[in-house]
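Board notes (copied after class):
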Amino acid sequence: MMTRNSFRHYALATALAFTATACDSPTPNVSNNSATQSATPIPTVDNLVVVCLDTLRHDAFYLADRAGFTDKLSPWIEKAVHFDKASSTAPWTVPSIASVLTGMYPRQHGAGIFPGDVANLSTEIPTPLPEESTHLAERLSSLDGLTSAAYVAHPWFASGYGLERGFGRMGMRRGSEKIVEVATEWLDGKITPRKPRPVDKRFLLYLHFMEAHDWHLTEGKELKDHAQALPPKLAKAAIEAAPANICAKRGARMCRKYLAYINAIRVERDSLGTFLDNLAAMGADANTAVLAFSDHGEEFHDHLEEAVANQIDPRGIHGFGHGQSLHQELLHVPLLVWHPGIDGQRVDTPVSLVDVAPSVMQWMGVELGEATWPGTLLGDAIAGAQSSAITDPSFQPDWSGERHLYASGIAYGPQQIATRAGDIKAVWHQRNEQIELFDLNNDPLEKSPVDNPELVLRFDPLLGDYAEIEPTAVAEAPELDAEQIEHLKSIGYLQGVDEDGQ
């Protein structure tokens, strides 16, 4: 692991002309602090639903709304709290979902770590969530009368990675429509032949959709069918909004992949809308909070030239997919909340997926007590408060006046770390020890790095302290059986691993 001194090398080399006062910015120690209840509490609810729409970049999720396209989610859009500057903690599933479930950053919870300095999820099996990292479902299981279930389409949940811990029932289903169907049956106490859920009990429900992860990875007729099934109005909007001008020629392969991706998002939005309709029909919406998010986004040649020039992806795949960078197309994700005690609104304060666990625990009436968190409470962002009483001072505003958000956990290539303060973002590249700066307000697509050595100096200690975090524990990579490996291969992972896990 790089020491903090190596992080400082580049910054010092590029800032010799500046006075010593530029070096005196506070250097946070990234540690934990005792948590207390938020100064702006949200009304408690009896029930909680968490929905992951895998692989949804923020701009693509809202394309239908911008285009005036009506789907089953449309009636619910105005009722939601939209966190317009939500950031993932990692560019792929395992470390990101582990952050949602534990309230910890990847460097803290220890899931998704690779053995060497260059990660390669095609040939190496990453670490799972350690037993020492307490899971949200485990925390909530102590509530009297709570029943819980998870219905998911992602094979990481069936591969011994600890993501399934704490749920009373775990079901694997293909397709978001089927997931919604079986989840509704579980809520309604109709799951058979096993013991049905008592409908008078409180519940925790986790759903995980996968169409937007999978459909654009197909080829040939299957890919063509997915792309052509996109309704004309939405297809027109997608072509006009496609990243990096990839749809200048509609029949181009990357354009077809993007259209298939947008069609998958349409299906997932319909499924989410259907589930919310079902919840309302049961009368459960009056005492249930629903939080929907994505674990990461997807790249469609947004930074192709940079990827080709750097040649750091060990797969030889450049500018497409996820796991390979910390650019905004992978970190800027949708995060929506439907809560009976909160009116629909848009929130412009930057938040992180590490904020989910403590926030929903508070909504469920769990005393945070002496628990420790790097995040803040979403209720504070809604109220316009800068930071929460539960937040470690290391993540509090200092010279920037803004909270620090972090991301790490590269799956393909040399490790990187990103931190964001307001609309300024810094990305440290381990390969060449350089720090890139981006002004997300004026350059949201991250096309023109900012040349500001003084800012490099200010961000450098934040990156260094985060890099020095030692995970609570690191578990050994699990031994996957042939079926688990094949399931993961079917969605693009572990392509170079044989059926014996070698």
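Comment from the instructor: The radius of gyration is 22 Å. Residues 336 and 497 are 37 Å apart (CA to CA).
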